[in-house]
Amino acid sequence: MKKLSNSETEILHLLCSGLSTKEVASKSGRSFKTVDNRIQSIYKKIDVKDRWGLFIWALNNGFIQKQDTVEIKETPTIVEPVDENVCV
């Protein structure tokens, strides 16, 4: 694995805190395009394809701790599709 730069490490931490690319750009004082380019660089360096992979990698490699993560306490409600041909 290639070493992450300081700016990539900062962006990784911000992403893992749940911020969007736009929010990371605003918080870090970088342009959206710069942040997006850094994210793509991070993906290549740590060999992941998406944010879930990035999050799992960061957790497994000590960049974030389990207690820093948000636990979902409620199971999402699944709504069944409505059959328009059935009268109620």
Can you describe this structure?
The chain has a domain at about 5-65: Arc Repressor Mutant, subunit A (Orthogonal Bundle), CATH 1.10.10. With about 90 residues, the protein is mainly α. It is globular. The N and C termini lie far apart (about 60 Å). It has 4 helices and no strands. Helix 1 packs across helix 3, helix 1 packs across helix 4 and helix 2 (about 20-30) packs across helix 3 (about 30-45). The longest helix has 15 residues, at about 30-45.
State mean pLDDT (0 to 100 scale).
82
Number of helices: 4
Q: What name is given to the CATH topology of the domain at 6-66?
A: Arc Repressor Mutant, subunit A
Global Rg: 18 Å
How many strand segments? 0
Second CATH tier, the architecture of the domain at 6-66: Orthogonal Bundle
Considering DSSP H and I runs of 4 or more, what fraction of the residues is helical? 40-55%
Distance between the termini: 59 Å
Element pattern in H and E: HHHH
Sheet with the most strands? none
Strand percentage, roughly?
A: under 5%
What general form does the structure show?
Answer: globular
Low-confidence stretches: none
